[in-house]
């Protein structure tokens, strides 16, 4: 019996939460990180892989995606994705479904996906009982059930918080559709369960404004997602970041990128970054309609920020430790001894690359992140470079044996 199950040797280890940025060997035992040293003898592992030349980071966390198991061509629902199929190949080991299901469908989601998936899955429960499985319920105030949503959030550790989305966009308010009803009921649920609210919000002037959302309605620790979408006045007429954005951050409001098919515009994001207003978390809002662009995957969005001028360390921090803290799971997002061995190996390619935003405008860049290996709880779940596999000519005897013919 060897001391370790797996040793990853020679990678450049980057863990922003521990301020680690140096070459280390990393050893895994029983699905957990067991040792982090400059040199761990290869013979101490059942398997030792030479991963020198690559970057080793904590497994990535996508804080905003949609993986509820719904057939994509059904009517009246968001066309979602299969989590493991899309996330492991971009180095994501933990994801958060952002309100696809409400209280009505939560248990089905938990039993069919969350409890069975190798991918670690958390969820924001939609304040509307039918969520995005039945989009009509997001418009009906009788479907907003804060007590039920909060009870689910209190009972199940996989619930990260409450989601409000898509409510009464571009229509005059009335008694059946008060301006802030979805947000107010979500915040009520958040108060009842002690967890954050994520708001997907449309400012309907003059009935509800964006400054009112982030300065009055949301609490410290609550999250506004899609912050760089075209509809938000985060810049003034002189292309300067509005003072109320910094005021909201100072009072503790969290800003999530939530790229999606329509919610990330270079014309907002680049000036904001240059002026010091950055996203707390970099996330995809991944679902079927944006898998082939402009989102593609989390690494693609991280590459956008790398080329926009954010440092590698900051990009990794906003896709590892920061989302872990926000969803209330600080045991994730780092490489501390004893943690589950959620590990991503990357390389940063140099070349000429193009990146699109939601408005079909482009940005050129010279660097692109690529996933080399994903390890979830000590198991290699993605290995496109076949690292550690024998060359076929030298494969062991079992490789050459044909199964018996019946």
What key attributes describe this structure?
single chain; alpha/beta; TIM Barrel; 2 domains; 8-stranded mixed sheet; 11 helices; about 20% helix; globular
Order of helices and strands: EEEEEEHEHEHEHEHEHEHHHHEEEH
- DSSP helical segment count: 11
CA-based gyration radius: 22 Å
DSSP strand count: 15
Which superfamily, in CATH terms, is the homologous superfamily of the largest domain? Metal-dependent hydrolases
Q: What number of structural domains do the residues give?
A: 2
Instruction: Please give the alpha-carbon distance between the first and last residues.
Output: 37 Å
Residue runs with pLDDT of under 50 for 5 or more positions: none
Q: Residue share in helices?
A: 10-25%
CATH class of the largest domain: Alpha Beta
Q: Pairing-aware structural class of the strands and helices?
A: alpha/beta
Approximate strand percentage: 25-35%
Taken from the alpha-carbon principal axes, the silhouette is globular
- CATH topology of the largest domain, by name, is TIM Barrel
């Amino acid at each position: 019996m060897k001391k370790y199950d797996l040793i990853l040797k020679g990678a450049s280890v980057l863990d922003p939460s521990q301020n680690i940025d140096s070459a280390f060997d990393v050893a895994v035992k029983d699905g957990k990180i067991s040792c982090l040293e400059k040199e761990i003898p290869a013979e101490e592992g059942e398997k030792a892989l030479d991963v020198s030349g690559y970057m080793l980071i904590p497994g990535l966390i996508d804080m905003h995606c949609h993986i509820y198991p719904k057939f994509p061509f059904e009517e009246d629902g968001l066309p979602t994705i299969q989590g493991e199929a899309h996330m492991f190949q971009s180095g994501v080991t933990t994801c958060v479904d952002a309100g696809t299901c409400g209280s009505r469908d939560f248990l089905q989601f938990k039993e069919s996906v969350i409890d069975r998936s190798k991918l670690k899955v958390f969820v924001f429960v939609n304040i509307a009982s039918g969520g995005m499985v039945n989009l009509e319920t997001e418009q009906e105030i009788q479907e907003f059930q804060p007590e039920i949503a909060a009870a689910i959030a209190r009972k199940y550790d996989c619930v990260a918080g409450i989601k409000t989305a898509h409510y009464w966009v571009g229509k005059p308010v009335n008694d059946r559709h008060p301006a802030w009803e979805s947000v107010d009921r979500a915040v009520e649920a958040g108060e009842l369960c002690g967890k954050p609210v994520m708001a997907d919000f449309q400012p309907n002037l003059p009935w509800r404004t964006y400054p009112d959302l982030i300065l009055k309605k949301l609490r410290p620790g609550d999250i506004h997602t899609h912050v760089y979408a075209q509809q938000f006045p985060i810049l003034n007429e002189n292309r300067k970041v509005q003072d109320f954005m910094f005021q909201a951050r100072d009072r503790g409001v969290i800003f999530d990128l939530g790229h999606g098919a329509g919610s990330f515009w270079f014309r907002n994001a680049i000036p904001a970054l240059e002026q010091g207003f950055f996203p707390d978390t970099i996330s995809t809002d991944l679902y079927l309609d944006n898998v082939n662009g402009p989102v593609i995957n989390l690494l693609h969005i991280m590459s956008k920020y790398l080329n926009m001028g954010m440092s590698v360390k900051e990009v990794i921090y906003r896709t590892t430790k920061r989302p872990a803290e926000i969803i209330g799971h600080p045991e994730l997002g780092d490489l501390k001894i004893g943690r589950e061995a959620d590990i991503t190996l990357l390389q940063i390619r140099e070349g000429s690359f193009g990146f699109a935003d939601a408005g079909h405008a482009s940005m050129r860049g010279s660097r692109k992140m690529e996933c080399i290996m994903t390890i979830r709880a000590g198991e290699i779940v993605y290995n496109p470079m076949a690292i550690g596999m024998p060359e076929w000519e030298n494969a062991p005897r079992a490789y050459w044996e044909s199964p018996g013919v019946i």
